[in-house]
């Protein structure tokens, strides 16, 4: 299939003459293709549609979840339990596996295929010349060689080379990210390396025609279009596991070795002692249940789900739970400009009129705002400029801000409204007598109108708008507060004003007026009369920043996050916007970074924070290189051209008002389009990660304490190697440990969380310092739990409920409850406010522990016996050692950190 970047030769379409392109695709520029030829080509090239990625089925996702190592281990435990007639244990563990698989599958199936959204964007109808007649056909039936016609308001149905055009402009923000409409014509572009946004003789699928008309020859359809190439990139980008998924997978592998290693030791020890095989297997099952963090997948899912609900309340929606945690690790944000950091609404910000500077308030297309200037200066008469703004433009803007026509002209109509001029009424009062339509060849527009003359009768007035350079060359005078002045006296001041506006990243338009002598007829050749103009003023237009963007960038940088702006706009404009936002140093264009090798670009990235005129491939490459350099990358965007980079990023952030493609490719959607919401989401992500770390610390301490307990009991034949029954272990895991986890989950985020640098993704949850704490805390719980078994060895029995085992069960339960209270924060004290909510939740497992020991049917279920008052006091005293020791250890650690900070 021919593509948008090349034809039958190696020369790109845009670098070839229009007639050569027509000949290359074997068509007729006037008659188009025949119906028969179109049918043949459709069979050859396929429909003009985006190929969709097949979505995985529910069963495929479920089987992938079931294959998770943690679930595989649990399945093995459940099967063996049933085999040795431990039905209740097998059922409970099996139910846990089903819960894990259900939660994981449910979340994964929420995400739809990204390329499906591209297919939905396909335009249903197109105007095409077939058999010499203009007909309307399904856009999916277009083929290379079709001749299509376009006019204002149309959506381009396929990539095409312009054959002829009249004042054509297209809005390509969805593809290139550039906010201003692009002037188009059929002229050949000589440079074959011209970037996508500068290919002015091409039109691209799913961009919009904002002005003029055109005829184009289709050169690419379906997957051969620029949209299709984005779809191909999207398919090639494989979603990677989040940092948390990778860490938990690694931790699961370690725990598997610990669990089955301990089981092997216990079974071998039991067999060497001559114990019955069934008893040894039961003991191994007890050990496995103790050593495998059975609730970890479910608890982490619940914790992340809670985080996703918090994000949703702040207008940020995540599609996969693990992405909540990824947010907290974000160390780099690559943000699109148009519609993300900016409003995507062209607005006049500054005005140079009659030799004076004015600022314009108000944002977007709201007609409310003021025109302000230095105090003490007289207020000028804006009549001449207001006439040019309204009459030398075609766009309309309703009082509700709805725009029809060119966005730049809409900004001019809004400025006129702020001057008190209504565009619709002005156009009715002074109808257009003649015009010179805007064209990129001469870069201006002129209109002629009849208006009342000062001495009676009527006079002809010419109004002109265009690029400052071309308008200035046709001016002979400049309007000032004292009347017209010769152009040569003011030329340098005007050039200085133009440069100042341009350096601020504003798009500058010049306005001029010419009054003809009364009785002058409307010119037969309007173009010849665009001369002897009087310059009225310069207008600076910008796509304004969102009100919250600058503060959001400041907070992000304070949090140690590198923020970069990546846009399709020119690098000069992008650099000016970057300066307003307070981004770091350095700007580069797409062409400049394309000329760099990966190694060169990576080396320069720390000093590059603004990228202009970039392609979708550039965005994808930047995200990839940052990831390879160790960064956790968030990419924001709302346009189709952002989709592949969003999918590549660790956390792709789509805007709620953006295209369906970006919403599907991204991992998070900002419902309110507010860049500041992303910073809030990062803060919540950090808080959730801290909670997960606290949970893992608590869970692993419990796990190590039980592993040590069973190993020591087996090796030293304490109660025949059975310190706790399998049901007791399950009771501790399901009915006791869950409440300290809830306390950790509900604990508010600590102050100053956004003043810390991003966590090092290379420093895993299971880092050296953390593992030492797990063993220390777990060892403490193990020792306190073992003491009752050592105090009353004569009361131990492996066949009937007895006090020492019950006391060990109680100490393990209370140690879990009190330990969870103080482990909810680290290194901060767990006994600081707010603590009331935590105490309320922990009262529940405390009551359950008492009930399991003292209520008859629970005694029989769990295998406990009633305890005396003294035995309860011993259990309470032993379990209180756990929080006291942990709080003392954290106090020492905080003191050491303060000393180190003071020394540095």
Automatic annotation (TrEMBL):
<dbReference type="Pfam" id="PF00690">
    <property type="entry name" value="Cation_ATPase_N"/>
</dbReference>
<keyword id="KW-0472">Membrane</keyword>
<dbReference type="InterPro" id="IPR008250">
    <property type="entry name" value="ATPase_P-typ_transduc_dom_A_sf"/>
</dbReference>
<dbReference type="InterPro" id="IPR023299">
    <property type="entry name" value="ATPase_P-typ_cyto_dom_N"/>
</dbReference>
<feature type="transmembrane region" description="Helical">
    <location>
        <begin position="727"/>
        <end position="746"/>
    </location>
</feature>
<feature type="transmembrane region" description="Helical">
    <location>
        <begin position="767"/>
        <end position="791"/>
    </location>
</feature>
<feature type="transmembrane region" description="Helical">
    <location>
        <begin position="835"/>
        <end position="858"/>
    </location>
</feature>
<feature type="transmembrane region" description="Helical">
    <location>
        <begin position="870"/>
        <end position="888"/>
    </location>
</feature>
<protein>
    <submittedName>
        <fullName>Cation-transporting P-type ATPase</fullName>
    </submittedName>
</protein>
<dbReference type="InterPro" id="IPR023214">
    <property type="entry name" value="HAD_sf"/>
</dbReference>
<comment type="similarity">
    <text>Belongs to the cation transport ATPase (P-type) (TC 3.A.3) family. Type IIA subfamily.</text>
</comment>
<feature type="transmembrane region" description="Helical">
    <location>
        <begin position="803"/>
        <end position="823"/>
    </location>
</feature>
<dbReference type="Pfam" id="PF13246">
    <property type="entry name" value="Cation_ATPase"/>
</dbReference>
<dbReference type="InterPro" id="IPR059000">
    <property type="entry name" value="ATPase_P-type_domA"/>
</dbReference>
<feature type="transmembrane region" description="Helical">
    <location>
        <begin position="72"/>
        <end position="103"/>
    </location>
</feature>
<dbReference type="Pfam" id="PF08282">
    <property type="entry name" value="Hydrolase_3"/>
</dbReference>
<dbReference type="InterPro" id="IPR018303">
    <property type="entry name" value="ATPase_P-typ_P_site"/>
</dbReference>
<keyword id="KW-0547">Nucleotide-binding</keyword>
<dbReference type="InterPro" id="IPR004014">
    <property type="entry name" value="ATPase_P-typ_cation-transptr_N"/>
</dbReference>
<keyword id="KW-1133">Transmembrane helix</keyword>
<keyword id="KW-0812">Transmembrane</keyword>
<feature type="domain" description="Cation-transporting P-type ATPase N-terminal">
    <location>
        <begin position="12"/>
        <end position="86"/>
    </location>
</feature>
<dbReference type="Pfam" id="PF00122">
    <property type="entry name" value="E1-E2_ATPase"/>
</dbReference>
<dbReference type="InterPro" id="IPR001757">
    <property type="entry name" value="P_typ_ATPase"/>
</dbReference>
<dbReference type="InterPro" id="IPR006068">
    <property type="entry name" value="ATPase_P-typ_cation-transptr_C"/>
</dbReference>
<dbReference type="InterPro" id="IPR036412">
    <property type="entry name" value="HAD-like_sf"/>
</dbReference>
<keyword id="KW-1278">Translocase</keyword>
<feature type="transmembrane region" description="Helical">
    <location>
        <begin position="703"/>
        <end position="721"/>
    </location>
</feature>
<feature type="transmembrane region" description="Helical">
    <location>
        <begin position="251"/>
        <end position="271"/>
    </location>
</feature>
<dbReference type="InterPro" id="IPR050510">
    <property type="entry name" value="Cation_transp_ATPase_P-type"/>
</dbReference>
<dbReference type="InterPro" id="IPR023298">
    <property type="entry name" value="ATPase_P-typ_TM_dom_sf"/>
</dbReference>
<dbReference type="InterPro" id="IPR044492">
    <property type="entry name" value="P_typ_ATPase_HD_dom"/>
</dbReference>
<dbReference type="Pfam" id="PF00689">
    <property type="entry name" value="Cation_ATPase_C"/>
</dbReference>
<keyword id="KW-0067">ATP-binding</keyword>
<feature type="transmembrane region" description="Helical">
    <location>
        <begin position="277"/>
        <end position="300"/>
    </location>
</feature>
């Amino acid at each position: 299939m021919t593509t948008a970047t090349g034809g039958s030769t190696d020369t790109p379409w845009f670098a070839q003459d229009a007639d050569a392109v027509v000949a290359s695709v074997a068509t007729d520029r006037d008659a188009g293709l025949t119906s028969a030829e179109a049918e043949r080509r459709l069979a050859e090239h396929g429909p003009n549609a985006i190929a969709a990625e097949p979505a995985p089925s529910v069963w495929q996702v479920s089987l992938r979840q079931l294959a998770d190592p943690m679930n595989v281990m649990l399945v093995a435990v459940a099967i063996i339990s049933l085999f040795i007639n431990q039905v209740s244990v097998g059922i409970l563990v099996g139910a846990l596996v089903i819960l894990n698989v259900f939660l994981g599958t449910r979340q994964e199936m929420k995400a739809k295929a990204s390329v499906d959204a591209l297919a939905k964007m396909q335009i249903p109808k197109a105007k095409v010349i077939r058999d010499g007649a203009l007909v309307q056909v399904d856009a999916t039936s277009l083929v290379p060689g079709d001749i299509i016609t376009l006019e204002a308001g149309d959506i381009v149905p396929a990539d095409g080379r312009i054959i002829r055009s009249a004042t054509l402009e297209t809005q390509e923000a969805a593809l290139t990210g550039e906010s201003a409409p692009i002037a188009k014509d059929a002229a050949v572009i000589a440079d074959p390396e011209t970037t996508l946004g500068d290919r002015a003789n091409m039109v691209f699928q799913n961009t919009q025609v904002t002005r003029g008309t055109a005829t184009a020859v289709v050169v690419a359809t379906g997957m051969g279009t620029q949209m299709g190439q984005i779809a191909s990139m999207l398919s090639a980008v494989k979603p990677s596991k989040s940092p948390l998924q990778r860490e938990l997978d690694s931790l699961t592998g370690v725990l598997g070795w610990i669990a089955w290693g301990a089981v092997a030791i216990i079974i071998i020890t039991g067999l060497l002692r001559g114990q019955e095989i069934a008893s040894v297997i039961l003991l191994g099952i007890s050990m496995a249940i103790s050593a495998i963090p059975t609730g970890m997948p479910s608890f982490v899912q619940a914790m992340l789900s809670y985080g996703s609900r918090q994000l949703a309340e702040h207008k940020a929606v995540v599609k996969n739970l693990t992405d909540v945690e990824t947010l907290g690790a974000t160390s780099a944000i690559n943000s699109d400009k148009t519609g993300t950091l900016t409003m995507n609404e062209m607005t006049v910000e500054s005005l140079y009129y009659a030799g004076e500077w004015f600022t314009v308030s108000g944002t977007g297309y709201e007609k409310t705002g003021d025109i302000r200037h230095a105090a003490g200066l007289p207020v000028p008469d804006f009549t001449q400029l207001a006439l040019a703004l309204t009459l030398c433009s075609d766009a309309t803007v309703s009082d509700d801000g709805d725009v029809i026509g060119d966005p730049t002209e809409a900004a001019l109509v809004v400025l006129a409204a702020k001057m008190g001029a209504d565009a619709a009424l002005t156009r009715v009062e002074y109808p257009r007598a003649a015009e010179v339509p805007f064209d990129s060849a001469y870069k201006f527009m002129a209109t002629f109108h009849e208006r009342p003359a000062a001495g009676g009768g009527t006079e002809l007035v010419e109004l002109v708008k265009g690029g400052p350079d071309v308008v200035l060359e046709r001016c002979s005078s400049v309007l000032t507060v004292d009347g017209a002045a010769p152009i040569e006296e003011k030329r340098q001041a005007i050039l200085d004003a133009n440069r100042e506006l341009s350096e601020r990243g504003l798009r500058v338009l010049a306005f001029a007026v010419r009054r003809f002598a009364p009785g002058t007829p409307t010119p037969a050749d309007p173009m010849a009369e665009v001369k002897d103009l009087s310059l009225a003023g310069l207008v600076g237009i910008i796509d304004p920043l969102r009100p919250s963007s600058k503060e959001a960038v400041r907070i992000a940088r304070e949090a140690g996050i590198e923020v970069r702006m990546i846009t399709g706009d020119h690098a000069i404009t992008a650099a000016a916007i970057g300066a307003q936002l307070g981004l770091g140093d350095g700007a580069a264009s797409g062409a400049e970074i394309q000329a760099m090798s990966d190694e060169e670009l990576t080396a320069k990235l720390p000093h590059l924070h603004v990228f202009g005129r970039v392609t979708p491939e550039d965005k994808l490459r930047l995200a990839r290189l940052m990831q390879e350099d160790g960064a956790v990358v968030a990419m924001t965007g709302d346009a189709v051209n952002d989709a592949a980079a969003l999918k590549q990023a660790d956390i792709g952030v789509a805007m709620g008002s953006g295209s369906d493609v970006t919403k599907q490719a991204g991992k998070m959607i900002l419902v309110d389009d507010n860049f500041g919401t992303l910073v809030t989401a990062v803060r919540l992500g950090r808080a959730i990660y801290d909670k997960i770390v606290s949970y893992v610390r608590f869970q692993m301490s419990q796990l190590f304490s039980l592993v040590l307990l069973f190993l020591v009991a087996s090796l030293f034949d304490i109660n025949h190697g059975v310190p706790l029954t399998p049901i007791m272990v399950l009771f501790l895991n399901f009915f006791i440990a869950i409440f300290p986890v809830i306390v950790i989950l509900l604990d508010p985020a600590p102050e100053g969380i956004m003043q810390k640098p991003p966590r090092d993704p290379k420093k895993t949850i299971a880092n050296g310092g953390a593992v030492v704490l797990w063993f220390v805390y777990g060892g403490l719980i193990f020792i306190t739990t073992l003491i009752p078994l050592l105090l009353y060895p004569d009361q131990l029995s492996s066949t009937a409920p007895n006090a020492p085992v019950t006391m060990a069960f109680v100490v393990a339960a209370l140690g879990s409850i009190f330990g969870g209270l103080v482990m909810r924060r680290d290194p901060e004290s767990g006994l600081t406010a707010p603590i009331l909510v935590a105490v309320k939740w922990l009262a529940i497992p405390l009551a359950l522990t008492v009930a399991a020991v003292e209520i008859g049917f629970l005694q029989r279920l769990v295998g406990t016996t009633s305890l005396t008052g003294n035995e309860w006091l011993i259990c309470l005293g032993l379990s209180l050692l756990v929080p006291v020791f942990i709080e003392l250890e954290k106090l020492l650690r905080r003191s050491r950190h303060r000393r180190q900070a003071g020394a540095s």
